[in-house]
Amino acid sequence: MTQLTRTQVVIVGAGPAGLFLAHLLHRQGIESVVLDTRTREEIEQTIRAGVLEDWTADLMRELGLGARMDREAHFHTGITLQHGQTRCHLDLMELTGGKRVTVYPQHEVLRDLIAGLEAAGGQMLFGVRDVDLREVTAARPRVTFRRREDGPLETLEGDFVAGCDGSQGGSRQFIEGRTEYQKVYPFGWLGILVEAPPSHHELIYARHERGFALLSTRSSTVQRLYIQCGAGEHVSAYPDERIWQELRARLAAPDWQLTEGRIFQKGIVGLRSFVTDRMQQGPLFIAGDAAHIVPPTGAKGLNLAVADAVYLFRGLEQFYRDGHRERLERYSETCLRRVWRAERFSWSMTTMLHVDPTENAFEQRIHVADLEYVTHSRAAATALAENYVGLPLDG
Ligand code: PHB
């Protein structure tokens, strides 16, 4: 006999989609249990990027989770685009009628969400094992798991299951008749954390003949920098001095100096665009990276996951309030409209700013022309800014 626990919504995955969903449901008195195979420490310590659109930052505040973000995050009213040694400042605030972005890494967001849910009495189970999702689309959807290696098998049954288990998670496999769209870019990002004060007051996205570079920030003493690297490369190919040479070359500009310091973290990620065109199957709804991936160049990943959580919450809230399923039925369609626009933007930023070794000289010149266009046309700059600060949730 396995131990059976009932809840209203079983949430598989304690990432941004799962935890925002749990908070929104909890606030409305809808019960959920969040499960994750990772430990709380792993979730809170895995270094991730994080650029929050205004509505995402506002949602943190609305949920009573904004205090640390408001103290520690960096608020940017503009970004810098660089081509060769020429820089162009894009005034996001002016171009978008008052919007800005918040640089607050995803693992910090998750720490605040977990602490907040714990304080509110929300149920989260970390480090669970032997998770079995085979019954997630059954009439009474359920997930089985063990809390510890030698613990008993437990069953968690809900009215619904939210598959928020990321790109490698298993929940997507249960969506029948789905089509998957993918583009794998032939390059990756090498990211470093550096003990050094900021070199610049805002993010710099640079296209250089040696490849892309991005200068971002974490605090007054820690900087985050990235360089384009080969898709299959390993960090061992990048001793510190090689990284600095590349950063100095790619970010060089007249009368400007990169502040350098001790590199205390290095990692490589591949770049990929991916969309699943169906995000639901019976009582199962998938959200966030489980359903779609964007390359980090557009800074959209976290916001897309939170948008899915909001749309799913609205559907569930309608169902529990008056028994109607219209919003749930339109869930995939509602999410995917926004997802495809963010995919388009992330792809266009990526192709515009990277040097793709598989493209011919004509294609590469077109990307340079794209960059020239956004840095010389107010209309093009406005379009980039509108997407960068985030399209409206109901657009
Ligand atoms: C980051 O600070 O890690 C960061 C910022 C902007 C991006 C990607 C990553 O587009």
TrEMBL record:
Keywords: FAD, Flavoprotein, Plasmid
MF terms (GO), sorted A to Z: FAD binding; oxidoreductase activity, acting on paired donors, with incorporation or reduction of molecular oxygen, NAD(P)H as one donor, and incorporation of one atom of oxygen
Pfam families: FAD_binding_3 (PF01494)
The keyword Ribonucleoprotein is annotated on this UniProt entry: no
Record-annotated FAD-binding domain positions: 6-346
Matching PANTHER family: P-HYDROXYBENZOATE HYDROXYLASE, TRK SYSTEM POTASSIUM UPTAKE PROTEIN
Protein name: 4-hydroxybenzoate 3-monooxygenase
